[in-house]
């Protein structure tokens, strides 16, 4: 590593010289930011360590410097919200015991895109590790992970390499932790060739009065910081700044150093130690007397300054006390390295002996992993200053709030030219062939090659695995540690986003991502409680890409505000967790606007969870939502290398009524199977419903549209299988809700798919195409 100066004085340098200096020392600052730090914030030349600290803490990844003003559109509170997106993870209440004590699901939603493009296995694995720590540090037990992945052209060898590394990394970290993978989605598109997306959701459970916060509590004068975990090394140094820069092929080797090195088995051991310590703190009535945070972006620096400043304090850190696993590390590296498997406590002096003994002796960290331990590394300051010392020298002295708030921008933005025109395709000569090609397409075919890699049943909470329902379903409180009255409560999780819709229209693409994720958990029998998001976009310094971000945020906000909560008609769907990931582009260009959405829902009785496989012959098939001429962005158009312009545009005025009607029908026991209509349209949805039990369908979708639009357009909606004796109840319910629902056909004993007199296929042929489509492309 090159020698670095103690101090960088920018005042006498030209802008070109400042820019050259920043490049020379790999500092993720602009010229104006460097001058602002020196002239406005510090009023003196910054040290090298201060420049590193601001480049990380002030990055897009940490401070949301281009996006924060737009995120204020989101509703982040509501009747079920215990904690919104203010700390390491959000929390939403899903159950209450007979005493009225609420139990929450903790949600963290993060991205690890740049690292996964450069070093797929390690990038994805450490993404899971950091996400899990975010949830654990809220005092929660981690119960599930889920992933939403975007890869490039599936026919490219590089895509196969990245795909294999990412999926193996997620499995290679999550499986050893003993955490089931509950849900996810994946999409392949050439626009992600040089910038894959790896976004992860992690869930935990915690009682409301057991939550530990990510800040120093009131009256924290005299508190100290305890660092726990792996000894600090140089892995991940500058990771947050790296994640806030455009990927450049010539920097790939250098960028590998910004990717952390994972150790899942050490993290599993630390999680066990944390859970045991949580119990001790609860028994002693000390939960509200401590703060706890994972070490992610910015390492020791960001964890310590954020813990302190969020509580209204400053902090002082002595880098000599930080355990290190390598000799001769630069002090800036010790301060800001993103070494994995680390947490930080802020606690009163009288708890130090207990906590050090707990980790170092009871759980024997030094014996479990070389150099791992818990150590006191600093203390709270009451003057609001953030001070870092090393060998008697001050490396950092700044106002803590100046460090954490970052430097914010009001970026220019401008709309892109209109999308491509709607194509004029001739009617298919062979509809059977079209359906088989759709089912075999990599963006529709079975995801079994991915989710079979993951452990899905560990912990014994999973009720519906990925693959046979639109959402994963769990019973999070199903053992005797929880009150009997909440053990049947279920939760459902879905992740969604279609990049082809976003290519056409950033606003409607975002609306569809929200609506689709909500439909998915509704089809699983749940009612929506909250959303989380990973907002992945290109370079915000380019007006057209900034505009895509702005329009996507507006679409998410509008869609959320259109969904009323069950039992709280005046409340709308809140966003409780998420992150922003910008600069997702390379020399090949930017990714499509990619608002990656996850929806969490709840079921009062998990036994009412719904799968989409048809259950009986001679039952009725009901379509909810009329078909429209909306093939823009569809896989059907993709078969012909067309994009189109008529993206699905959900009617947000009626959407809430639609999901509440479907949920009520399922909970009343009037529905046997439910599936949302999305990729591949109604034809693909019906085919997927037939596969598990090899039950046929005979349907005729009414209307004036051409047959291909009726069958393959991706206008949202539901297909419901209902018993014949539920027909009257279903009709009355949907009429009361003013929701458009109509019978389109029936299930048949003969295992054939018969649709609108143009499709007549054996279920076995359709299933074979669907089961093998992705697997064969990945060979």
From TrEMBL:
Pathway listed for it is:
Purine metabolism; IMP biosynthesis via de novo pathway; 5-amino-1-(5-phospho-D-ribosyl)imidazole from N(2)-formyl-N(1)-(5-phospho-D-ribosyl)glycinamide: step 1/2
Q: Where in the cell is it found?
A: Cytoplasm
- Report keywords, A-Z: ATP-binding, Cytoplasm, Ligase, Magnesium, Metal-binding, Nucleotide-binding, Purine biosynthesis
Catalytic activity of the protein: N(2)-formyl-N(1)-(5-phospho-beta-D-ribosyl)glycinamide + L-glutamine + ATP + H2O = 2-formamido-N(1)-(5-O-phospho-beta-D-ribosyl)acetamidine + L-glutamate + ADP + phosphate + H(+)
Protein name (database record): Phosphoribosylformylglycinamidine synthase subunit PurL
Q: Name one GO biological process term.
A: 'de novo' IMP biosynthetic process
Report residues binding substrate.
Answer: 111-114, 133, 260, 581
Q: Which gene encodes it?
A: purL
Major place of localization? cytoplasm
Q: Which organism is it from?
A: Aquicella siphonis
* Subunit-structure text: Monomer. Part of the FGAM synthase complex composed of 1 PurL, 1 PurQ and 2 PurS subunits.
Which NCBIfam families did the record assign?
Answer: FGAM_synth_II, PRK01213.1
């Amino acid at each position: 590593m090159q020698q670095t100066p103690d101090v960088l004085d920018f005042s006498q340098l030209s802008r070109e010289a400042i820019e050259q200096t920043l490049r020379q020392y790999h500092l993720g600052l602009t010229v104006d930011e460097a001058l602002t730090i020196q002239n406005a914030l510090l009023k003196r030349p910054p040290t090298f360590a201060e420049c590193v600290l601001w480049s990380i803490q002030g990055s897009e990844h940490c401070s949301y410097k281009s996006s924060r003003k737009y995120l204020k559109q989101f509703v982040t509170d509501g009747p079920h919200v215990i904690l919104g997106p203010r700390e390491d993870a959000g929390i939403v209440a899903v159950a209450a015991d007979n005493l009225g004590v609420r139990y929450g699901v903790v949600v963290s939603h993060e991205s690890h895109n740049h690292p996964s493009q450069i070093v797929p296995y390690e990038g994805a694995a450490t993404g899971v590790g950091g996400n899990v720590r975010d949830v654990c540090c809220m005092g929660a037990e981690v119960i599930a992970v889920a992933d939403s992945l975007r890869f490039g052209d599936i026919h490219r060898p590089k895509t196969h390499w990245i795909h294999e590394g990412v999926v193996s990394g997620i499995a290679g970290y999550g499986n050893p932790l003993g955490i089931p993978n509950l849900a996810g989605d994946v999409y392949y598109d050439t626009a992600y060739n040089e910038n894959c997306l790896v976004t992860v959701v992690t869930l935990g459970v915690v009682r409301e009065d057991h939550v530990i916060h990510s800040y120093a509590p009131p009256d924290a004068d005299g508190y100290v910081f305890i660092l726990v975990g792996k000894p600090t090394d140089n892995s991940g140094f500058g990771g947050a700044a790296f994640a806030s820069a455009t990927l450049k092929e010539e920097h790939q080797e250098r960028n590998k150093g910004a990717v952390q090195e994972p150790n899942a088995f050490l993290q599993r051991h630390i999680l066990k130690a944390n859970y045991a310590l949580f119990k001790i703190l609860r028994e002693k009535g000390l939960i509200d007397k401590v703060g706890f945070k994972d070490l992610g972006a910015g390492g020791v620096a960001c964890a310590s300054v954020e813990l302190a400043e969020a509580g209204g304090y400053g902090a002082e850190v002595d880098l000599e006390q930080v355990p290190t696993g390598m000799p001769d590390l630069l002090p800036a590296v010790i301060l800001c390295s993103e070494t994995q498997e680390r947490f930080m406590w802020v606690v009163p002096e009288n708890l130090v002996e207990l906590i050090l003994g707990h980790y170092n002796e009871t759980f024997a960290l030094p014996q479990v992993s070389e150099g791992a331990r818990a150590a006191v590394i600093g203390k709270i300051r009451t003057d609001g200053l953030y001070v870092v010392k090393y060998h008697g020298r001050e490396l950092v002295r700044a106002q803590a709030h100046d460090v954490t708030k970052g430097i914010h921008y009001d970026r220019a933005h401008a709309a892109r030219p209109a999308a491509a025109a709607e194509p004029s395709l001739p009617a298919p000569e062979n509809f059977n062939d079209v359906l088989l090609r759709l089912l075999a397409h990599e963006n529709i075919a079975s995801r079994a090659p991915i989710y079979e890699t993951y452990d899905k049943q560990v912990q014994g909470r999973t009720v519906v695995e990925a693959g046979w329902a639109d959402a994963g379903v769990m019973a999070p409180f199903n053992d005797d540690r929880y009150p009997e009255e909440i053990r049947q409560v279920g939760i459902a999780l879905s992740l969604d986003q279609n990049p082809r819709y976003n290519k056409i229209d950033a606003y409607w693409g975002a609306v569809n991502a929200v609506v689709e994720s909500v439909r998915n958990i509704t089809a699983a029998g749940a009612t929506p409680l909250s959303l989380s998001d990973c907002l992945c976009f290109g370079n915000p310094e380019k007006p057209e890409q900034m505009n895509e971000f702005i329009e996507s945020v507006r679409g998410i906000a509008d869609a959320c505000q259109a969904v009323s909560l069950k039992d709280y008609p005046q409340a709308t769907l809140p966003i409780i967790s998420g992150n922003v990931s910008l600069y997702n582009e390379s020399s090949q260009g930017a990714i499509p606007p990619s608002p990656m959405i996850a929806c969490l829902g709840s079921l009062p009785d998990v036994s009412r969870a719904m799968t989409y496989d048809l259950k009986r012959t001679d039952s009725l098939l009901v379509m909810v939502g009329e078909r429209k001429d909306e093939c823009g962005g569809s896989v059907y158009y993709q078969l012909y290398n067309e994009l189109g312009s008529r993206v699905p545009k959900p009617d947000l005025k009626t959407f809430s009524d639609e999901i509440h009607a479907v949920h009520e029908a399922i909970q009343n026991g009037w529905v046997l199977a439910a599936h949302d209509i999305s990729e591949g349209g109604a034809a693909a949805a019906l085919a997927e419903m037939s596969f598990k039990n090899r039950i046929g369908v005979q349907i005729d979708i009414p209307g004036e549209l051409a047959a291909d639009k009726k069958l393959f357009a991706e206008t949202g909606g539901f297909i419901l299988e209902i018993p014949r004796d539920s027909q009257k109840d279903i009709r009355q319910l949907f009429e009361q809700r003013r929701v458009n629902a109509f019978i389109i056909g029936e299930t048949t004993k003969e295992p054939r798919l018969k649709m609108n007199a143009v499709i007549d296929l054996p279920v076995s042929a359709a299933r074979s195409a669907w089961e093998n489509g992705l697997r064969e492309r990945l060979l």
